[in-house]
Amino acid sequence: MISFVFYTCAERIENLKQTIRFLNRHEPNLQDKEIIIVYQNEGPTLPETTCFNLNLDSYKRPIMCNFGVQKAKYNIIAMLDSDRILPLNYFYNNIVKKGEMTTTTTLHKIQHDCTDDEIDNQKYSYQIEYRSKSDEIRRKNLFSGNTLFHKSDYLTLGGMDERYTGYGHADTDITRTAIKNNIKIKFIDAPEIHLWHKNSVFYKGQELEDFQIQSAINAMKFAIKWKSIDPTTNAICTEVLQKLNVYPSDLVLEFSQLYKKLYGIF
Fold first, then answer.
1. pLDDT at position 240, please?
2. Distances in Å between the alpha carbon of 151 and those of 13, 55, 65, 124, 238?
3. Which residues are paired to 101 by β-bridges?
4. What is the pLDDT of residue 48?
5. How far is residue 257 from each of residues 8, 114, 137, 254, measured CA to CA in Å?
6. Which DSSP symbol is given to 245?
7. Do residues 37 and 8 lie in contact, with contact meaning Cβ atoms separated by under 8 Å?
8. What is the DSSP string of 40-83?
9. Which long-range CB contacts under 8 A does 252-258 form with residues at least 24 apart?
10. At what angle do helices 249-263 and 212-226 cross, to 10 degrees?
């Protein structure tokens, strides 16, 4: 018995549909499963799924993930991005024990849009992405798109920190929290397909193709919370400082306030 929790936005619906098609085909032995979809803004009700629309004006993954986990009826949960495909019987063969969380070691990041047939026959080009087995900053990790765990363990950790908005650091934050709480982390040697999609994020109705300022804001929130500044935080903040005029004014204000708090100047 397993609950699959997906979180996504209206712009990723085709990825989501393809992911669920493969999930249903690749897990024929999972007789008792539920599929929960948490939409940021809007999306269709898909067959044999339970869908929720949170009507969020911006992409807030922690809020969507925490909501989906709370709604799950089974204690074993697979939390998935809407653009991931796992091998045949992956979840059936890798059910977790209480006190442990699992993900894969590698991802095959597809470089273009693919049909189901092209995926089945491996007719695609891809880059290999390797997950960090710790909590390295700005690296794929335990919570980067495919995580299997017990609901009770997730809730004990407090879920994801909902102060993070957009992309970056929310996954690293909860990975670090899991490590600090002695969760056993297992990395499965299985290829995880990462589907292609446009690289953008929605913020208050705007599509941001350059969302580096959100990543910088999250990096500073992370640094303040954990009382440590990683060199990559310095680097991303320096890059954002050089192009502040391209970003929405409220993000610039939030960036400046955090920068002054972290570095003492702005």
1. 97
2. 26, 24, 12, 35, 39
3. 185
4. 94
5. 29, 43, 22, 5
6. G
7. yes
8. SS-----TT-EEEE---SB--HHHHHHHHHHH-SSSEEEEEETT
9. 252/213, 254/217, 255/213, 255/216, 255/217, 255/220, 258/217, 258/220, 258/221, 258/224
10. 30
The pLDDT score that the predictor gives to residue 167 is: 87
Residues 6 or more apart whose CB falls under 8 angstroms from that of 117 comprise 123
Round to whole Å and give the CA distance between 224 and 221.
5
Q: In sequence order, what are the residues at sequence separation of 6 or more whose Cβ sits closer than 8 angstroms to the Cβ of residue 238? A: none
pLDDT of 200 reads 85
Residues 6+ apart with CB under 8 A from 216: 233, 236, 237, 239, 240, 255
| Cα separation, 60 vs 112, whole angstroms | 26
Task: Return the structure tokens found at 44.
Answer: 């269709």
Q: Which residue has the tokens 């204000």?
A: 253
Residue 255: which of 224, 196, 213 has the closest Cα? 213
Amino acid present at 119: I
Whole-number Å distance between alpha carbons of 264 and 33: 51
The residue ranges of the chain whose pLDDT is under 50 are: none
Let me know the angle formed at the C-alpha of 79 by 73 and 82, rounded to the nearest 5 degrees.
120
> Is pTM beyond 0.85 here?
yes
Which of helix, strand or coil describes residue 93?
helix
Q: What pLDDT sits at residue 116?
A: 98
Token readout for 146 is 């495919």
Length of the chain: 266
Residue 149: φ, ψ to 5°: -160, 170
Report residue 197 CA to chain centroid gap.
Answer: 14
